[in-house]
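User: I want to check something. If I give you two sequences, will you return the structure for each one separately, not as a complex?

Assistant: Yes, each is folded on its own. Here is the first sequence with its structure:
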Amino acid sequence: MCGLTGGWSRQRFLELQAALPRMTHALLHRGPDDDGHWCDAEAGIALGHRRLAIVDLSPAGHQPMASASGRWVIAFNGEIYNHLDLRGELEAAGSAPPWRGHSDTETLLAAVEAWGVQRTLERSSGMFAFAIWDREERALWLARDRFGEKPLYYGWNRGVFLFGSELKALRAFPGFDAPVDRQALALYLRHNAVPAPFSIHQGICKLLPGHWLRLGTQDLEQGRLPEPIAYWSAAEQAHAGRADPFAGSEAEAADELERLLRDAVGRQMMADVPLGAFLSGGIDSSVVVAMMQAQSARPVRTFSIGFNEAGYNEAEHAAAVARHLGTDHTELYVTSEDALAVIPRLPTMYDEPFADSSQIPTSLVAQLARRHVTVALSGDGGDELFGGYSRYFLASRLWSKISRLPVSIRALAARAISAVPVGAWNRIYHAGAIVLPAEQRWSLPGDKIHKGAAVLAKREGEDLYRDLITHWQPQSLMHGIDEPAKFGPLRGRNMSNLIDYMMLEDARHYMADDILVKVDRAAMACSLETRVPLLDHRVFEFAWRLPLHYKVRGGTGKHLLRQVLYRHVPRALIDRPKMGFGVPIDSWLRGPLKEWAAELIDPVRLRNDGYFDPEPIARKWKEHQSGVRNWQYHLWDILMFQAWNDLQKSDAKGVSDGTC
């Protein structure tokens, strides 16, 4: 795991060359072990790299690295898990160079020399982002892994093409000037994160997952930005899987899933440094740890954090799973003061507005793990692949019933449901939910019922999904600003059922733009590499060949994943309500965070900043403080933008770098 940055400009090369050490230093937290720079004055190209040494700790792994012929020079962030297989193929074909070391970076360069960039990407399994310079054709290639585990920003700024793992590297270029992209801000309000290909800055993009971009000399001369090209598409693979369904029995499907998971986990245990795993005690992290322990000769290091607030504490469940599997488990109970101490670092850590409040416990567990290991495997991805989110069942049940009724009747029902206060719905639900299995009970039922009412009048299931994932309707806060037309849910290629559609959209956007961003930034702030075995592309492609009833059954998700896990962990340790990974932001905003929040969303301040209409925010703040409604997520969106914007307005040079 590393950080990369650089730029390309003939006219301003000397300025770029002088700035490169500063740009690279901005990524120190991503790579504290080594620092590297490579420049070609004649071409005007500069590459910078910070290294977190994971595989091949010797100087042979130093970057930027040149290929054996000298044609290609790369700055690489990530891991190629099948690089030993690629080496074997190159050697068998007589295309391998004399190896200088055993790093996957060297393997990647040799593969590019033998097969070209596109074919190498198609054959590589891993998480990565890289910039590779072709000295022969004077062309710069940027590429990103299939799901977007590793970040890569790029764009023109003041006549220089800049790129980097984080925006702070681009901002370190002298005179960097990129105002807030208000359309991207509108997307942030809806999704609580800025989705690719947008960034919060005008003119700066994120490379889409599964894409590459090639910038040639003519592009440089004309200041042009070529369109990225896809080498892998989640949507295409999902539709291909549906066209080629798995024909075996459920037991055979479980066998194949376990084989794929075991192989994916085994490959991702490759490291020359201490390795462990996050363990919440939930299905996803437990199955990853079970696969790790099954392939390890010694106890796997596992980590979890606990909270004294019962509704947010999963540590006892994690400890029970760890005891059963025999892992070397470390848990840390954190106080509200520990969690609150993370908040001032969030704007720098996440680099652009980001408002998934589980960023706080994610940061805390990353800090805990980094005290003992350099690499941690994570269980992310299971919900999107195997139907784990409660909104899937809520939306499916709701749509199956309401889609038969005229829109006018649904609109009337929505008004009637919304007329009943959230607190009353909570009391009604809890009185009846006693008859439901524990794993099917909702948290915050009144809020979910009100949100469900808001989508009753939708004409299509896709519109229902869009409302379920929406935080703010952007037009309610940003008058006259439209969301970018080229961003939105898939249309015209709908899945045969709403749950499949929602899982695919979550994999394309929510997972890539929220979940993976959250984990990457929180972990890299502590110089911790994270790996996500459930996002091995073979697991994804197999999951989409499975019939839906192998994933979702009886109102419960992850059916087949559970069957695999039950082979390693007793059902009694796993079957319980889904808790999520959060902190009590709602009560904190009425308590220890109240003064901080009130200052950030002061109506005069909001009006002067000129981004948001302060009235809807003030109304939600008042309702939240009175306890009438729980607006924690809406308010957190605004607070995280305001905190980020404050940082931008200050002299960033004197601000903490966001490391642990």
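And separately, the second sequence with its own structure:
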Amino acid sequence: MKIFSAAQLKAVDAYTIEKELASSTDLMERASRAVADKIRSRWTIDTPMKVFAGPGNNGGDALAIARMLSEANYKVYVYLFNTSGRLSPDCQLNKQRLLDFQNVKKDMMGVHNVEFTEVTSQFTPPKLEEGDLIIDGLFGTGLSRPLNGGFASVVKYINASPATVVSIDVPSGLMCEDNTYNVMNHIVKANYTYTIQYPKLAFFFPENEPYVGNWEVLDIGLLDPGTEETATFYNFTEKKDMVAMLKTRSKFAHKGTMGHAVLIAGKKGMAGAAILSARACMRSGLGKLTIRVPESNVRIMQEAVPEAVLNIDVDANCFSQSFDTSEFDAMAIGPGIGTSAYTVQAFIEQVSMTKCAMVIDADALNILGSHRGWINQLPRHCILTPHKKELFGLISTTRNSYEELERTRELAVRQRIFILIKGAYSAVVTPLGNVYFNSTGNPGMATAGAGDVLTGVILSLLAQAYDPEVALRLGVYLHGLAGDLAAEDLSYEGLISTDIVNYLPKAFKELRRV
């Protein structure tokens, strides 16, 4: 699913209108119907609806939704803000439709269930109570500057209320992409955002969660012309994308044809990282796994991962010496290896001499962060999987997630590498600057070792001859899906990284089921 900018969304609307011989009003009616149906499915007829409509097309949506809810016999209170005396044509049309419907219903039934107020100067705020539903239609994707003045006051009033808030398309005041210079306390804090056809880039940034709340894409059949005007770097991965990427095993497959991977992980006292990564690797379809370990970890690794072969380092306590990796199809390095002087030197030697596909994670990323010049020695198309702190070691701290993403894109393009920004909606950034946000995973996966598990999954797919981009995207999706399946049975709080490993087979099975 593409993620378009606010400007591109206009091109999509225009193309749909042209191809379907429709009008902008027709599209507004479709969008409004989708939101109204969603509201009706979640809130009962006893819920008072407080609709805040702005003067533009988002306000037109809100007025159309008010009419549709009134048709379904909800009690609706509408506040249309028209302080400039200028409504967009579609907003004006939907204002008249609402008033006409209100009059018809009163003539036929002697009563009406819409209270309409047009605010042209002074606004007397209505009482907003806990049982109310506020429908926020003040401003949509067309907003280009922070809200101020009276509209900022209205937003603050909404945010201070105990009522539940639904925003149409985007929370009023939120920019679709970059909010670096926005005034954040002038943005509506929605509990739910029902966005039309495509998610917005700002939804994927953690600092915007208090404003976006729980968001859902509503499909109204808009058409993408697929032109240069709608080419985008940003995408949201869906299940059907992953199903298409998953290979089918040959009936004649054997361990020699399913890939041989090597994992460099675990100093003394950190064998757990190596165990988690190794088990995840074996649970993801790999034929053979070799683990490079210090002598101190040999016994525990043989007991914990009997399926693996051990390659023992000359140092008893850490990874201290590079070795020949020519027999392997893929290598992962980093989980729990530490950052001792021996390990630092062995790391850069190993990375420089290794020719197979590669994943760099955890302590290996910390080493890179302390020796940024070494980034130039990384092989093209290798995969880096940092969490936030490790990423900052590579790109420095940033003001917000938008800047963080753009700097990461620049680094990936410059070095021709893949970078995964781990977190909610983990972002796969490619050497071409494309970004794929992941759709699986949950807060229960915020637990020690989850990243080590992910490294094992990606390593396994690389060794099975998946293209690096596919291995990374599919690995992230499967890892998140395993976490979702585990959390469904065990709860967020009860989830540990071993559970993610144990649910990997179910994640593969879930994709195969489609």
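Because they were folded independently, the notes below concern the second chain alone. The longest helix spans residues 468-490. The first strand starts at residue 49 and ends at 53.
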